[in-house]
Amino acid sequence: MTGNAEKNSFDLEIEGDIGVFLDRDGTINRAGPGEYITKWMNFEFLPGALEGISLLASLPVMIFIVTNQSAIYRDLMTHGDLEHIHGMMEFEIVSAGGRIDSIKYCPHAPRDKCACRKPSSLLYEELAREYSIDLSKSYNIGDHTRDMEAGQKANMINILVRTGHGIASEAELATQNVRVDFIVDNLKMAADTIANLISCK
Fold this sequence. Notes:
Elements: E1 19-22, H1 49-57, E2 62-68, H2 79-95, E3 102-106, H3 122-131, E4 139-142, H4 145-153, E5 157-161, H5 166-173, E6 182-184, H6 187-199
Parallel strand pairs: 1-2, 1-4, 2-3, 4-5, 5-6
């Protein structure tokens, strides 16, 4: 897996053009402030994460991960290290009944001033073009203010989770002009929210 999206080998038929875009660190797995997950042995799924992704996999949506991984350009890990982590992560997700349709990541540090690092919405827009996703009908789930900023730029439905940096982000966002549509405790509750919204349409 590379910084560009790769279609997985699953032969599932996905109906519709709705995407669910997940942040990784602090949303799917534990990561403390300033902590970089550079080895699979340090990767720990958050409570409700596997269940939430499994629920999303039962819905007529495509599931993506968009993540900043500046540890690469900080020389703390390689692209290969990250691909190994993501391969193991996807194995566990599939084993739990879920799936990930594609992953995009930004490897740059903030000092690089790249175009792809969140809060930029570039990686979301690339996935939308590649998979014919209507971003205005799609969902963005994350724990950080930059996740919500990126989702707003892409005109998506923003769901903030209180895991990871989420509680601090909730306080920060209360003073900022960034749209957050739902605030929930974890990824499972975010998936429940999406399932309820889709069932009402």
